[in-house]
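Running co-folding for heme C.
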Amino acid sequence: MADNNNEKDPKKVTSASDTSKKDASKEENSANSDTPKDAEKATTDAQKEAHSHSAKEETSDKPAPKKHKKRAMVVTIVVVVLVVAGVGFYQWHNTPQFCAAFCHNMDQYLATYEEPQNTQGVDKYGNEVSNTNAMMATLHRHNETTGKSEIRCMDCHHAIVGEQVSEGTEWISGNYYDPLDERVGDDLTKWWGEPGGNFCVNENCHAYLRDGNGGINYDRLEASTVWMDFNPHSQHHGDIQMACTECHKGHRASVYMCTGCHDDIDVPDGWVTYQENQEIMANSGTQLKGTQISESMVR
Ligand code: HEC
Ligand code: HEC
Ligand code: HEC
């Protein structure tokens, strides 16, 4: 069989060694048992047990070996402990505290998240923020308008297994930065394979701003804030299209990017101007990504 497969699929050069690995593990299994005969008995017993309890009682003429019963109990206990630990770990793993429990470079993200809302605070780089509501992680932690009692790290940062494995290996190998380079929308959704806007307009969050294809519906976005004196979501400049995360910052004061040209508009409490943003990032020691505003953008 394996040989046939090999012939059919020449790419599968490893299957031969796979088979020998399997053989090796088989040998190991039987080596674990006292004798090959024992091993054989164990498997048949296990098979019987798997079939049904009553069937086993009817068919087994020899008394069930005590050792085997004990082993079954130990296995049950181990399984129960593993399941309980697994569930416990999973729940702990979903808490904001977990993120910072292992990774020191998560401290400032947990700190910004945990700050009290609507008051003076500090951003992920240690800068003062005049109103913590300007940091989306803080604002969203508990928010009447979301109708959710609590939004956790993983509600915004959807955990994809591949990403977590990658974080794990980076943690083990020490291959990470502190402070981290700032992520923009596209980085944050890279693991989901979706455009950056979907970080905010994913189906669990600002889904009412989505279009039929799951992307951003810019008409709805614009309509959602028409009541503002100067509508930050206005699509007046079709050619200036910014990601949500260019203005809405998770762990530092949000940036009113339009002030790069419109210097007469009111900046919301705690937010910073385009110019202030340039300074914050210059002092952060990390790379500034995103739109660089220049007069030539508007024709
Ligand atoms: C050019 C900057 C900018 C961009 C880009 C931007 N926003 Fe906003 N947004 C603002 C400002 C400014 C406010 C007002 C905040 C305040 O008053 O505290 C706001 C408010 C909001 C609000 C609250 C509206 C309300 O009724 O209170 C939501 C929700 C929102 N934005 C979602 C988004 C989403 C989703 C995107 C991306 C698709 C986005 N924004 C892109 C600047 C921006
Ligand atoms: C409201 C959504 C939201 C929540 C909740 C949230 N984040 Fe973020 N996070 C963001 C955004 C947006 C960014 C992009 C960078 C920024 O704006 O600061 C980000 C960026 C990050 C980054 C990348 C590094 C960087 O500076 O860009 C890390 C790490 C991170 N968050 C960790 C956390 C942890 C840990 C928690 C929970 C304690 C958390 N986040 C909660 C929205 C959120
Ligand atoms: C590169 C400079 C530049 C940037 C950045 C810029 N604008 Fe403008 N904007 C202009 C100029 C110049 C005008 C006047 C000419 C025109 O109407 O296009 C204008 C006019 C407008 C108008 C119509 C007139 C008014 O003042 O009400 C709106 C609405 C507007 N901008 C919204 C925005 C929004 C929202 C942003 C941020 C997402 C933004 N602009 C970013 C240069 C800019």
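Result summary
The radius of gyration is 29 Å.
The chain is about 45% helix and 5% strand.
Job closed.
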